[in-house]
Amino acid sequence: MKKDVENETKKRSNIGKKILFAFVLPIVVILLVITITFSILGKNIFQEASSIPVIGTLFSSDKSALTTEDLQRQINQLKATLSDEQAKISDLELLLEQKEAELKALKEEKDQLENDLNNEATTDSSDETTEEEWISVVKTYENMKPKNAAAILTSMDESTALSILSSMREKNVAAILEKMPAEDAAKFTAKLMQLQQ
């Protein structure tokens, strides 16, 4: 039994020797030849190895210093980007407030003009007074910016808008129709042509 144990131990040591001579020693010799070759060529093998992505992390000596600097640089860039975006948001919020104020003013103006038109229609005053008021309303629309007038006319009832447009000068009508959405401009143009015939 002692012989069996000795034979088994010899077999195991033979397998270990075979692995050592078949794999480990050739790899060590190859690495030694590569190191000597690079040394003769005047290149530092460790610097060359550090440029390889995975192996480079094994040979990097100032890894933590570079990483900290890189992280700090990224943090500073992100802070700058964040402040730029916050400035853009502030500008957009201001623009939104301005547009909301313009919209409110246009709605108030539209409501006022519709009230004026409704009051004119219900007033039992003389034809001469009604005619003067109507001319005043038409002149108001003619003096407005075409964009604002177009917005108001498209939102009011069609018959009133047609009455106003038909009483205006052609130059002003053209400018207002130009600022209207295409469908509304086409609709009002067709109705104005019917009124003229």
From TrEMBL:
InterPro entries: Mg_transptr_MgtE_intracell_dom, MgtE_N_sf. This is Magnesium transporter MgtE intracellular domain-containing protein. It comes from the Bacteria. It comes from Pallidibacillus pasinlerensis. Gene3D superfamilies: MgtE N-terminal domain-like (1.25.60.10). Pfam families: MgtE_N. Keywords: Membrane, Transmembrane, Transmembrane helix. Residues 138-192 form the Magnesium transporter MgtE intracellular domain. Residues 110-131 are annotated as: Disordered. The chain crosses the membrane at residues 20-41.
